[in-house]
């Protein structure tokens, strides 16, 4: 296993071939390395904290599939659960016992009464919005600039993640009528929220927010912000939708709510989940108050369905992952995240590179440049993307796979052991020097 990739002819050949058959050569834009340049690595396998590309180069993975791999790649007990499930068939289109167990696990860890399983985070937020509109009989949706909720038409305005990476504020293909139903506000800005509700309060179906944003880099809510959002929604008869697709079951066993609402005493009306709860398979969910969820088909009139929803293999992977994710897993993940984030910041300081480290539990990111603390998307957009790019490539050359975008959170897993962490620490000084340019 070579640690330092000198060359990637295999990845380059596959990328060339991929571009002939798939737009941009990838099935999700950020994978194309558009923001950092160079050859996207085509991965052949993952084990624990490590990814190996088609050229045989190995990398410490700080992307973790953009969050899902809380336990690392190919965790033996998850693989065993998946293998057992696959041997019994891959999809029946009927109810199964594993779906019920996964739903119970999710309901047991969160304040929601009922949950519906779907296949992607996008489906979860799309369905939650439909349900909120059906429940309230209103159309408007409030979201925050820099928050990404998947590629739902009405939620793509000023979204983070890939749109931030590619510098697009909205996308062709979204009807003006869909965009007109969305009010976009600056994050962490109470006055803007108050003003929007004062003007449109009786027409707002819901406010959706990332429970703690990670799609414009990590920009945590200021203390009490989520409680404020819950309260203003309730005051105006709107639903508060907390999107925990990224934070759910990652920042704690009860997600962001476990360290926020559970402490402050508020609950969202609807929540969305994905990533960790699918254990690396396409599984996601939305859920909430029983009177709201009662409107969902077949109990109520709001339609929602899915051929592969609650898929037996995906739910087996998710259930195994959640059951394995005990307090010791979160302690280990928090510990590794603290070490890597602090050491990265120290190396940059040592090299004289101005930056801002921001974290929320075990999720963190570094904004390069001379910035104030980043509390909203407008500030995140003033970061020095070129500095990040130089740092990214030096880390990649040293066998560390960072998110190929300055606007993404870095993720670690409980499989990031001392050897993996050491490889990251060893790579830092040269990468920090590269970023100093
Ligand atoms: N919501 C949040 C907070 C996300 O981070 C994402 C994906 O990154 C989504 C929704 C969409 O999930 P998916 O990519 O599974 O459609």
TrEMBL record:
UniProt subcellular location: Cytoplasm
Residues found modified as N6-(pyridoxal phosphate)lysine: 275
Enzyme Commission identifier(s): 5.4.3.8
Enzyme class: isomerase
GO molecular function, one term: pyridoxal phosphate binding
Main location: cytoplasm
GO biological process: protoporphyrinogen IX biosynthetic process
HAMAP family for the chain: HemL_aminotrans_3
Family indicated by similarity: Belongs to the class-III pyridoxal-phosphate-dependent aminotransferase family. HemL subfamily.
Subunit annotation: Homodimer.
Designated name of the protein: Glutamate-1-semialdehyde 2,1-aminomutase
Taxonomic source organism: Nocardioides marmorisolisilvae
Lineage summary: Bacteria, Bacillati, Actinomycetota, Actinomycetes, Propionibacteriales
